[in-house]
Amino acid sequence: METMHAYKRAPALENSTWYKGLLISQLAGNSDTDGAFDLVESKMKKGTEPPPHIHDREDELFYILAGEIEVFADGKVFTVGRGESMFLPKKAPHAYLIQSEECHVLALMTPGGFLNAINKMNAPTRAMEIPPDMETYATADLTATMAVFVKYGVRMLSPNEIAEQLPSYPTAH
Questions:
Q1: Is the dihedral of CA 133, 139, 143, 147 positive or negative?
Q2: What does pTM read for this prediction?
Q3: Residues β-bridged to residue 11
Q4: Please, are residues 120 and 21 in contact by the beta-carbon 8 Å criterion?
Q5: Domains in the chain, start-ordered, CATH in brackets?
Q6: Are 42 and 21 within 8 A, CB to CB?
Q7: Are 123 and 21 in contact (CB under 8 A)?
Q8: Residue 1 — very low, low, confident or very high, per pLDDT cuts 50/70/90?
Q9: Which long-range contacts (CB under 8 A, 24 or more apart) does 77-80 make?
């Protein structure tokens, strides 16, 4: 067990990256919390959402700072807006679609470690804004991304799994 230290951190160039069209600011990572949790602040725009997926290790909690998302989980659709949170337990297939032009989210993942996967694939940010010209999940070849995620216990759902487990998720997306 590492010795943890108190610290103060805000989103800044030094702790932020661009990943698949998102601006991600790492407020707490695996090494900061001795693996207890990851905490990120993300700014996203419509069309940058990940495909439907499942986490084998992490519970996730999203708190919406600005904007609105629709979350697909447990056979339901949840509309989550500014000032609201959404809990997604591990092993629960889920997806979300951004409903506003942009969405600003605080995400807590426990235990920590999922950010390590993202940090293997991200790029340094050049400005504290959503990247204007980066490939997204929708435009990228996800073969390498899925290989990294599998090592961290995250798997994209097949079309049949989406139809069975997230029946309200739009198939044209």
A1: positive
A2: 0.93
A3: none
A4: no
A5: 13-128+136-160 (2.60.120.10)
A6: no
A7: no
A8: low
A9: 77/168
